[in-house]
């Protein structure tokens, strides 16, 4: 076990193993386990413990980089209904398909990376598969992807024809650091994985939402928490030649803020994914995406807290982070 991989036992268990150092309180009601598993659960997922998607102390480790594939020009965008029937402040979702959702589920890592097995991530992948499928996405799960495989998967997805799709979603479950995500063989910049969906590179997703949900650490800081008491008129229709910023219409929902750890329970999955699936399952088809993610923030911030006899890790908190370049309201 690396020095910064910390294990926790849920407080609801009646027996604690001798080598367990910490407890985590879960104030929210837990979702019932479904009997049918979409992603096969490994033997390591049977224990009900929490860990941090943390980075090891490895000054000599060098991340791998790889070549980018040339983008293929896309066909002109077509919609199934007249855009005039959709309010100007909302994304048009009246397409034949909602869109593709790719889930990258990295659990096991090469020894050279120094990263531990992410027990509990299969629970996340299973819950996310069911959740996004119920929303209407075409969902595919990819397990234990190397850096090059992640790059190739997203590059290929960006080169597909999304003309008949309303949006695109990608979920990454892995270890991480600030602005970096781990493949099984090392780390790679998140921006390198998402850049192929820019407006100038993926034409059939131009002016459509590109959603990225990232469950990973973004540093090594711990959140102590603090005790608390209880538009303007658009003229675009008159100018059909208007430009769109190439970085527009992206949304990044991170499990934690820059610089901080992100918590994961080996039996129930990560705090962020538990909250995200809970809110989407209940409100995903009638709330706007920022309302959904604000409720996710609230749930993670209020319903989860660590408790330990080691002062450094006593009563720690977590808050997700949303970075939005969306230009309209989004309703699934």
Topology of helices and strands:
Elements: E1 8-10, E2 22-26, E3 49-52, E4 97-105, H1 121-135, E5 138-143, H2 147-159, E6 165-173, E7 176-177, E8 180-183, E9 186-189, H3 190-194, E10 210-215, E11 219-221, E12 250-254, E13 259-260, E14 263-265, E15 269-270, H4 271-283, H5 289-303, E16 304-308, E17 321-324
Parallel strand pairs: 1-2, 4-5, 4-6, 6-10, 10-12, 11-13
Antiparallel strand pairs: 1-3, 2-16, 3-14, 7-8, 8-9, 12-17, 14-15
Helix pairs in contact: 1-4, 4-5
Model description:
By secondary structure, the protein is an alpha/beta fold. It has a domain at 91-220 and 246-325: Rossmann fold, CATH 3.40.50.1460. The chain has five helices and 17 strands. β4, α1 and β5 (138-143) form a beta-alpha-beta unit. It is globular. The model is unreliable at 1-44, 57-81 and 231-238 (pLDDT under 50).
What's a quick, concise take on this entry?
The chain has 332 residues and is α/β, with parallel strands linked by helices.
CA-based gyration radius = 20 Å
User: What's the CATH class of the domain at 91-220 and 246-325, please?
Assistant: Alpha Beta
Shape descriptor reads globular
CATH topology of the domain at 91-220 and 246-325: Rossmann fold
GO molecular function, one term: cysteine-type endopeptidase activity
Domain Caspase family p10: 240-332
GO cellular component, one term: cytoplasm
Family: Belongs to the peptidase C14A family.
């Amino acid at each position: 076990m690396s020095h910064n991989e910390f294990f926790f036992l849920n407080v609801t268990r009646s027996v604690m193993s001798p080598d367990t150092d910490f407890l985590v309180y879960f104030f929210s009601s837990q979702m019932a386990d479904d009997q049918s598993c979409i992603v096969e659960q490994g033997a390591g997922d049977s224990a009900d413990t929490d860990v941090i998607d943390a980075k090891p102390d490895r000054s000599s480790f060098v991340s791998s980089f790889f070549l980018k594939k040339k983008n293929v020009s896309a066909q002109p965008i077509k919609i199934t209904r007249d855009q005039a029937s959709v309010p100007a402040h909302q994304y048009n979702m009246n397409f034949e398909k909602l869109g593709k959702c790719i889930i990258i589920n990295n659990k096991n890592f090469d020894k050279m990376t120094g990263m531990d097995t992410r027990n509990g991530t299969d629970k996340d992948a299973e819950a996310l598969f069911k959740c996004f499928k119920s929303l209407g996405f075409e969902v595919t799960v990819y397990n234990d992807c190397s850096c090059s495989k992640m790059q190739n998967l997203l590059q290929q997805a960006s080169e597909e024809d999304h003309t008949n799709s309303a949006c695109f979603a990608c979920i990454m479950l892995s270890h991480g650091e600030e602005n970096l995500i781990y493949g099984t063989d090392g780390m790679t910049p998140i921006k390198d994985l998402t850049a192929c969906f820019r407006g100038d590179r993926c034409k059939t997703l131009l002016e459509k939402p590109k959603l990225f949900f990232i469950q990973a650490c973004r540093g090594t800081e711990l959140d102590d928490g603090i005790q608390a008491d209880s538009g303007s008129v658009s003229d675009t229709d008159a100018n059909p030649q208007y430009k769109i910023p190439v970085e527009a219409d992206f949304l990044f929902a991170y499990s934690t803020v820059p610089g901080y750890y992100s918590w994961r329970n080996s039996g129930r999955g990560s705090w962020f994914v538990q909250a995200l699936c809970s809110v989407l399952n209940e409100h995903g088809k009638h709330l706007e995406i920022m309302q959904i993610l604000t409720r996710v923030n609230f749930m993670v911030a209020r319903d989860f807290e660590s408790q330990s006899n080691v002062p450094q890790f006593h009563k720690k908190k977590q808050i997700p982070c949303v970075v939005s370049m969306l230009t309209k309201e989004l309703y699934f």
